Amino acid sequence: MAELLPAAESIAREAGALLRDFYHRGVRTEYKGDVDLVTEADRASEALIGARLRAAFPDHGIYGEEGTREGLDGEFRWYVDPLDGTTNFAHAFPAFCVVLGCERRAAGTPADQDGEMLAGVIYDPLRDEMFSAALGEGATLNGEPIHVSRAHSLDESLIATGFPSKKRHNSPNVHFYQEFTLRSHGVRRAGSAALDLAYVACGRLDGYWEFGLNPWDTSAGYLLIEEAGGRITHFDGSKFTLDSREILASNGLIHPAMEHLFADMFAGRNLDPILTPAEFAARRAAEGR
After folding, report:
1. Which of 93, 126, 94 is nearest to 20 (CA)?
2. Which domains, and CATH codes, for the chain?
3. SS3 of 119, please?
4. Distance set, CA 119 to CA 43, 224, 257 (Å)
5. 208 closest CA partner among 164, 172, 157, 145
6. Is 34 helix (H, G, I), strand (E, B) or coil?
7. Angstrom distance (rounded) from CA 139 to CA 285
8. Which one, of 216, 190, 187, 167, lies nearest residue 42 by Cα?
9. What distance lies between CA 274 and its chain's CA centroid?
10. pTM (two decimals)
11. pLDDT digits (tens, 9 = 90+) for 47-103
12. Which helix (H) or strand (E) holds 258?
């Protein structure tokens, strides 16, 4: 359906303009859980996106982060994150985006199986960057083709991850953060899963992993990375699905090394000890730094 991507881009731009206005005016923040922020902007953006999708595609379903659940038994379903990076937004940290991904679910597709991602956009309104992908047509940034990086080894790679906004003490990711930091060129944590996936697709990042994401976080990025020539799986390399609670994305070249580190971590093998400040200083001195 050729009209899917242009419509998604147009809607994302409009929602992005709304978010940009809220951002510059300041926004009243509320809490919907333990350190789980929701803002007026989240709700306003999802309402706008829902209205535009209903007008453009009245027979399509909508699955939104802020609670919109409509027409999910139909052939087409839009996954919507009206504001990915809410915590950043609420603190005026300039890293957030709008996410729309369209999935086609053929008749008879079991409820626990994915359909086929047809189109996806991730729009950063502060940088006016539109990351777009359509199935079989490649991925673009503001209309120009993008591709994943060519980094061949983990130690020369810049990678990213994220941490949950609530019940952070239950997440094991801090341990993986340490190990990947020791074995890569650096690990970034910017607070927007969708932007991290877009950055893997365009080569700004070489890899990304995270626990506990949702379909609205990953739907567009999933398609972007595959169309840009990258790879996206579970931590063990098995097939990624939109209901996955873990995600490993990369340029493909460093994927085996990342999988291997996950295997070692889960098995408790080859882990580096945590250094005391004195031990850290001694190591740096021995290395001449």
Report:
1. 126
2. 4-145 (3.30.540.10), 154-267 (3.40.190.80)
3. strand
4. 23, 9, 30
5. 157
6. coil
7. 46
8. 216
9. 29
10. 0.91
11. 999 999 999 999 999 999 988 899 888 899 999 999 999 999 999 999 999 999 999
12. helix 255-267
